[in-house]
Every structure is written in C-alpha cells, then in structure tokens.
Amino acid sequence: MTGLVFAMLIACFDGTIVGTCGPVIAADLNGLGLYSWMITAYMLCETVMIPIAGKLSDQFGRKPLFLIGLGLFVSGSVVAGLSTNMEMFIACRAIQGVGGGILVPVATAAVADLYPPEDRGKMQGILGAVFGIGSGIGPLIGGYITEYISWHWIFYINIPLAAIALILTVRKFPTPVTSSRPSIDYLGISFLTAFLLDILLFFEWAGSKFDWVSVQSFAMVITAVVLLVAFVFAEKRAIEPVIAPHLIHNKTVVMSSIFMFLFGIAMMGALIYTSMFAISVLGLSTLESGTYILAMVFGMMITANISGQTVNRTGYRFWLIVGPIVTAIGLFMLSRMTIGTELWYYAVCLFVFGLGLGCMMAVLMTAVQNSSTESEMGMTTSTVNVLKSIGSTIGTAIFSFVINNKLSSELMERLPEDVYNNIPHNTEIIGLLPYMTPENAYNALLSFANSVDFSFACAGILMLSLVIIGAIFKAETPKNED
User: Fold this and answer.
1) Which are the contacts of 65, defined by CB distance < 8 A and separation ≥ 6?
2) Residues 137-188: tens digit of each pLDDT
C-alpha cells in the first residue's frame, strides 16, 4: 500500500507540476506557441488510458499493468528532462500521461485486492488524501525547483519515488489466477479511445480555435455521437468488453458516475481560477499562490481520512450530503472576494473548500468497489474515474465561457465606450492593465474579479445539486460470481 501511495503521488503531481514552470520550459525550448499542449497532452493520454488500464488489470492482473505504467511514466519523465525542443517535450508528456493513466486506476482498484470491504474505506481515504496532496503541491514543487535549481529536475525527482514504489510493490503484489487466456476488446478500445479524444479536444478547442457554433463544432459533435453508438454496439458483442453494458443496471456505479462527472465539472471550474484570482486580484506571486493552495490540501487530507475511517459507521449517504454542502459553502465564500480582500480570508475559503472535497471521493470509490464483483473491480473503478476526468475537462471549457461572457458585460458597463471597443473582452485583459489609466485599470480588474466570483457562485450551485444524488444514494451488494 505504501508503494501504491508513492505511485499515486507522482502520477497526481505530474499532472499539475508544469502549471507554474510551464512558461519557463516553453521559453527555454522556444515553443511558446505550443504552451497549452504541455498540459493537454498529459491530460488526453491519461484520460484515455484510465478505462483501458482498468479493464486490462482485471484480465491480466494489477501487477503487470502497474509495472508497465511505472516504466512508461519513468521513461517519459527522464526523456522529458532531457528534451531539447518543444515537440520532444510534448511527446514525453504524452508518454507520462499514458503511464499516469495506468497507475491511477490500478492503484485504486488494488485496494479491493489487498483489503476486505470493511477496510477499504480507510485505504481509499488515504488515496484520496494523496490525490489532494499530489495535485495541490505539484505547482508548488515545480515552481520552487524551477526557480532554485532547474526545470529539468522536476522530472528527474520522479526516478527515486518510482524506485521506492517498485521496491515496495513488486514482490507483494497479488497475482490473480486465470484459467483461460483473456480476450482483449480491441474494437471497443479503438472506438472508446477515438470517442474520448474527440470529446476532450472539442472542449479544449471550442471557443478558442473555433466558435462554439461552427462547422468544426458540428463535425466534432456528430463524430462523437457516431463513435459512441459504434462503441455501444461493439461492447454488446464483445466477449470481454472494456466497459460492460450490464453496468447500467448497477445503480451504485451509475449514480457514482453521474456524481463524479458533475463533481469534476464544478471542482475544476473552481480550481483553475482560484490561483488566477489570487495572482491577478490579490497580488500574490505564483509561488505564494501555490503555497496558499496548501490550505485546500490540508482540508482535503482531514476529511478524506475521517470519511474513510468512519464510512462503515455513518454510511455513504451522510458524506455525500455533507460534502457537497461544505464544498458549496467554500465556493460561496470565494465568490465574496474582491480587490483588497484579506489573505487570511482567502486561506479560510480554500480550507473550507478542501474540507468539502475530501468528504466525497474516497467514499464514492469505496461504495463502487463494495458493489462490484472481483473480476470487474478495475473496470468499475476506472469507469467512475474517467467520467470525473471528462467532467474536469468540460468544466474547464464551461467556466472559461461563463467568465468571458460575464467579463464582457462587466467591461461594457464600467469602461468608456472607446476603451471597451479596443480591448479584448476576455481574461487576456489582465495582461493589458499596466498600459491602462489607473481608473480604467481598476475598473477592468474589478470586472475580472466580479466575473470570477460569478463562476464560483455557479460552481457552488452545481455542487449543491449533488445533494440530491447523495440523498437517494444507495450502495448495492455484488451478486456472486459463477
């Protein structure tokens, strides 16, 4: 379990570690035009691999998949640190994403192999805390290493951590006994991969590379629908489907998937813009902003552990009602921030937000695993994980759209018409503040603050909607396998 924790840790913080040092890497490799792909390449490959790795780990065992994932991750990390151009670096980030997309579902599913149902909540609580720590400290570690050593070392530090994970897990990993050669669902994997890439790239590009309402948007939506239909038909005929159609009858998996999808939208919509608000409005540096994020991490650690330790006594429903409410309170508190807000208030907001987040993830994963058969443990947990990842991607696009639209109306109301007509009506306005008169700069910054506040409030309302799912949530007991 300690080895799995180390593997989960490096996979989580490498997903966010380039957040603070990305501009430095792009400038050093002369690739500022490809900047966004440093994060996008990792995210795409990780999301696509999650359901595939989950199913294959059910068929071939967690150990071989874990070793493959760890090997790919370390290889990608080493070569990323040695990169001499941006194209090479992005390719390495994609390899890292594939490795991370294997490590996360395998580590999560392995809890069910190592522990009985009554102990899984505690262990999922630990993994939930690790997820928060890894995601939260990634930008902070990246920023400090880049500033005081070199950006190359943010990838080299993965090597000793991966070595520890390997030493602690390779001998003790449970090895399943299979009586027949597994059948790989190549057709289903192909359709699922194409569908996920299409839908993720649509939300990545819509509104930036092309308009939401355009020929390109229409083509990508139609393609996604066709691929989804083809995937469903392929799964109905597959001997060992990558996502079994009968999961639709498992209410626990279905409700958990819906919950995590909406959770991903609301969580990512808030997380992306908290740091931007702190830097642009509250005047923090990038590293200071990363330090304040630790308040959220501490909150997540507390409730992830408590919920995991007590879920057997309280039941799942309690945490799935309390979690969204506390998270929404944190988001509504964030929506009250403005120019001149005290930093202690910002830290308290993040702490409350983290407390809410920590209530839910470990509890849901425990419920899903306790409602699944042993032969489908990887498939069910990865299905829920991939929907959270899709929700996070969609949330990024949705909240960017919401903020830019609100910002446009705010700028129209607060700035003179001649100024308004000659500036961008989106978050790029932040870069122009030094070139504006003090009064116009203040009004533009206030407009930005109000727009981000509005997105926090929207995320809070979306979080509160999860209370409905939490109130009717009921965990099923898996049927005995033949």
Assistant:
1) 53, 56, 57, 102, 106
2) 777 787 778 778 888 888 888 888 888 888 888 777 766 555 556 788 889 9
pLDDT digits (tens, 9 = 90+) for 237-287: 888 888 888 888 888 888 998 998 998 888 876 777 887 888 888 988 877
**109/106 Cα distance (integer angstroms):** 5
- Measured in degrees and rounded to the nearest 5, phi and psi for residue 250 equal -90, 100
N- to C-terminal Cα distance for the chain?
29
Q: Is the dihedral of CA 80, 82, 83, 88 positive or negative?
A: negative
Q: At what angle do helices 18-28 and 86-114 cross, to 10 degrees?
A: 150
**Whole-number Å distance between alpha carbons of 72 and 187:** 24
* Amino acid (1-letter code) at residue 142: G
Which one, of 217, 345, 373, 225, lies nearest residue 277 by Cα? 345
- SS in 3 state form for the chain? CHHHHHHHHHHHHHHHCHHHHHHHHHHHCCCHHHCCHHHHHHHHHHHHHHHHHHHHHHHHCHHHHHHHHHHHHHHHHHHHHCCCCHHHHHHHHHHHHHHHHHHHHHHHHHHHHHCCHHHHHHHHHHHHHHHHHHHHHHHHHHHHHHHHCCCCHHHHCHHHHHHHHHHHHCCCCCCCCCCCCCCCCHHHHHHHHHHHHHHHHHHHHECCCECCCCHHHHHHHHHHHHHHHHHHHHHHHCCCCCCCHHHHHCHHHHHHHHHHHHHHHHHHHHHHHHHHHHHHCCCCCHHHHHHHHHHHHHHHHHHHHHHHHHHHHHCHHHHHHHHHHHHHHHHHHHCCCCCCCCHHHHHHHHHHHHHHHHCCHHHHHHHHHHCCCHHHHHHHHHHHHHHHHHHHHHHHHHHHHHHHHHHHHHHHHHCCHHHHCCCCCCHHHHHHHHHCCHHHHHHHHHHHHHHHHHHHHHHHHHHHHHHHHHHHCCCCCCCCCC
